[in-house]
């Protein structure tokens, strides 16, 4: 993580959305289509900062710092942050580019319904292709000396062409509260995605990101099942120390 964060202020939420509307005239986008996009963007921004009104100043500052690690980055598989809106008496929120993406975890969960003809079926080749895109994103971040610390499908987005982008770890904390647990120190952690050194000693490295990527691969092949669902969060450290690991998913080829 960068030691110093330069926050680009974009004004209030309404000012930012108004500028988008004004820009639409230049690109001649149909107004009804644009307004749908703005409505989706407004919803998405609100979700990113859900709960911030009730968070402490330290929590809000940490959330912004985590989110702004992606500010100014340019890579096709990294979801960069455009800026942050800060206004009086309102929780700040991060601004992300909008492409009609879906949260990757939610997308995988909808694929579970494919047997009923509701959603598409993912092939092994498509799963591998998405995984490789995430690898490319993480290689880019590590070359920039950036650690993710919370790599999981919930912190990725995917479009209709299965193009995947890795987002910061502020993207989905409040969207998937069941993925985070407090172990008695008032800090919610993605316990079941963490390497043992991160879980026990809060030590993070490129190696711990690789560990989390392994859990993410398991999520991809199981269509976002919960890892270690049978293990109590307070027992995870002992479980890992005893040498237990995630089992190979039923539909996962031995080659993977």
UniProtKB/TrEMBL annotation:
A family per Pfam: PK_Tyr_Ser-Thr
Major site of localization recorded for this protein: membrane
Keywords from the named record: Cell adhesion, Glycoprotein, Membrane, Receptor, Signal, Transmembrane, Transmembrane helix
Family annotation (InterPro entries): Kinase-like_dom_sf (IPR011009), Prot_kinase_dom (IPR000719), RTK (IPR050122), Ser-Thr/Tyr_kinase_cat_dom (IPR001245), Tyr_kinase_AS (IPR008266), Tyr_kinase_cat_dom (IPR020635)
Membrane topology: Single-pass membrane protein
Claim: Membrane is one of the keywords in the record: yes
Superkingdom of this protein's organism: Eukaryota
GO CC terms of this entry: plasma membrane; receptor complex
Domain Protein kinase, residue spans: 1-256
GO terms (BP aspect): axonogenesis; cell adhesion; cell surface receptor protein tyrosine kinase signaling pathway; positive regulation of neuron projection development; positive regulation of phosphatidylinositol 3-kinase/protein kinase B signal transduction
A GO molecular-function annotation: ATP binding
Subcellular location: Cell membrane
Protein name per Swiss-Prot or TrEMBL: Protein kinase domain-containing protein
Species whose genome carries this gene: Coptotermes formosanus (Formosan subterranean termite)
Source species taxonomy: Eukaryota, Metazoa, Ecdysozoa, Arthropoda, Hexapoda
